[in-house]
């Protein structure tokens, strides 16, 4: 499988298939520190990034924002003093799609 970070998100439409458990297992092997979480019955990818101060956390948040504009895929981001929590899932299909794993890998590459 090609490196996730080198891939581009595809347009996700209502009715697109969720990632299978086999795909999730395969994709998770390529990600470091990301967790599978379930919120309101929806599977998501989540990771906490630590920083030394608020300014660095905000700078990272802004880099994620630029990436999102390029890929047209958007996470939930919580920016706090010294910490950014990023949560990826595909809203249209209420779960995980390959795009979410691609974006998680690309998020890691921003550091």
Q: What would you note in describing this structure?
A:
- The protein is of the alpha+beta class.
- It has a single domain (4-108), classed as Gyrase A, domain 2, CATH 3.30.1360.
- The protein has helices spanning 21-28, 54-71, 98-108; strands spanning 35-39, 42-50, 76-80, 83-88.
- It has a 4-stranded antiparallel sheet with strand order 1-2-4-3, covered by helices on one side.
- The protein starts with 20 loop residues before the first helix and ends with a helix.
H/E series: HEEHEEH
CATH class: Alpha Beta
| Rg of Cα set | 13 Å
Estimated structural class:
alpha+beta
E-strand count: 4
Q: Could you name the CATH homologous superfamily?
A: Transcriptional coactivator/pterin dehydratase
Q: Helix count?
A: 3
Can you summarize the main beta sheet? 4 strands, antiparallel
Count of spatially separate domains: 1
Which fold name corresponds to the CATH topology?
Gyrase A, domain 2
Distance between the termini: 23 Å
List the helices and strands and how they pair.
Layout: H1 21-28, E1 35-39, E2 42-50, H2 54-71, E3 76-80, E4 83-88, H3 98-108
Antiparallel strand pairs: 1-2, 2-4, 3-4
